[in-house]
Write a structure and sequence with these properties.
about 70 residues; mainly alpha; elongated
């Protein structure tokens, strides 16, 4: 870690926090909706929150509007 620039560590920490928040929200939503496939995919794949945001705003809302 001594080879990294000084600014890298704070940026890294912000990215981790960002990812954890979105992953937590998406996993909670997938578990509440009883979607084990999505839960496992969201748990394993790390995309810095991109897959989680897509799930929350596209797939999780789509089924709700169809009911």
């Amino acid at each position: 870690m001594t080879n990294l620039p000084f600014i890298t560590m704070p940026v890294f920490m912000v990215l981790i926090a960002w990812s954890v928040v979105w992953k937590g929200l998406a996993l909670w939503k997938a578990a509440r909706r009883n979607e084990p496939g999505w839960f496992i995919a969201l748990l394993i794949v790390n995309t810095l929150g991109i897959l989680e945001i897509i799930y929350l705003f596209v797939f999780a809302k789509k089924d709700k509007s169809e009911k």
